[in-house]
Amino acid sequence: MRAQLLISALPVLGAQGLRILQSNDDGWAENYIRTLNDALNAAGHDVVLSAPAENKSGSGSTDIEPSPRSSACEYNSCPANSGPIGTNATNTRLNWVNSFPVTSARYGIDTIAPPLWNGAAPELVVSGPNVGGNLWLQVPFSGTVGVAVFASKERGIPALAFSGADDTRTAWDASPVPASSTVYAQLATQLTQAVIKSGTPYLPENTFLNVNFPSVSGACTDPAKFKWVLSRINPGIFSDKDVETCGTNRLPTETSVIDAGNCQISVSVGDSNDKTTAPADKQAVVLKKLGSLLTCIQS
Asked: What is the pLDDT of residue 237?
């Protein structure tokens, strides 16, 4: 029922179902990742979730082999003294890895998902939504971003990293589902559908999208009122020119987009080599793909 309610609010964009590997850095039982998992499945995708057993925020691109657990997973979502990897008892597409976000994504891509897909690889990696924003100086340290960078750089899989300003942690089975969790899931699915509809290759090589949602509050509680703005991760004072759009060749920073209010979402094309802003030619590809969705920043 929750998935049906989520997908009913989404526009029909004609995207075909994909094999999607989903991860995060807040843990496999966090409400944000589970609500988005429901929405992506309801949109017709085949989603395998492989995320850390517990909150591993701020772990960047750390990748260490998993070890057996001695305590329960977050929110008591797995028992104490479990192994290094575990699977939901009633849904084998929900999995935890007792290590860091990048490790969980690596195991998902290489070990967990292929048997469920008859040996096939993921076509897209979706990370998050992160509990809390990942803007500029936070980006290099974000495990949610680390997942997207690993997928795009090390495995050649297009990847999207979503983060939400509302940072209250909530268990997977919370009732009612927090409004922020529902809205972020609807918005993340909308952008995922738009990327897929744009056709392959979904993103330029060695790039990822770093997407930040503002707080779900005040006038910004209806997904239809949110606006998407192409942005850059780091300030561009010493950078080459950005793609020309909205009458300028310098994109707003994602921080300035969020700070401007007006229910605006920042969409930055990240460089998977250094987690900064991708060059203008790669921005141009994304602008062309998502042009009908994007708007100019409103102060």
From this structure: 87
Q: Does domain 2-290 have CATH number 3.50.50.60?
A: no
d(CA 262, CA 202): 28
The pLDDT, as a whole number, for residue 187 is: 98
Detail the DSSP E strand segments found in the chain.
19-23, 46-52, 85-87, 94-97, 124-131, 159-164, 207-213, 227-231, 264-271
Residue 202 CB-density burial (10 A; 0-12 exposed, 13-18 middle, 19+ buried):
buried
Distance in angstroms (rounded) separating the CA atoms of residues 255 and 241: 18
Alpha carbon 53 to chain centroid distance? 18
* pLDDT tens digit sequence for 163-212: 999 999 999 999 999 999 999 999 999 999 999 999 999 999 999 999 99
Helix segments in 43-178, DSSP class H:
101-107, 113-116, 143-154
Phi then psi for residue 142, to 5 deg, are -80, 125
Residue whose C-alpha is closest to residue 203's, from 295, 284, 266: 284
Count of C-beta atoms within a 10 Å radius of residue 172? 21
Burial of 78 (0-12, 13-18, 19+ CB in 10 A): buried
pLDDT of 238 reads: 87
Predicted TM-score (pTM) of this structure: 0.94
Alpha helices in the chain (DSSP H): 2-8, 31-42, 101-107, 113-116, 143-154, 179-197, 254-259, 280-290
For the chain, what are the domain ranges?
2-290
Averaged pLDDT score across all residues of the chain:
95
Average pLDDT over residues 264-269: 98
Distances (CA, A) of 184 to 18, 64, 69, 180, 246: 20, 30, 31, 6, 26
CA dihedral 118, 123, 127, 133 (to 10 degrees): -170
CA gap 30, 77 in Å, rounded: 10
- Looking at residue 10, what is its pLDDT? 43
8-state DSSP, 103 = H
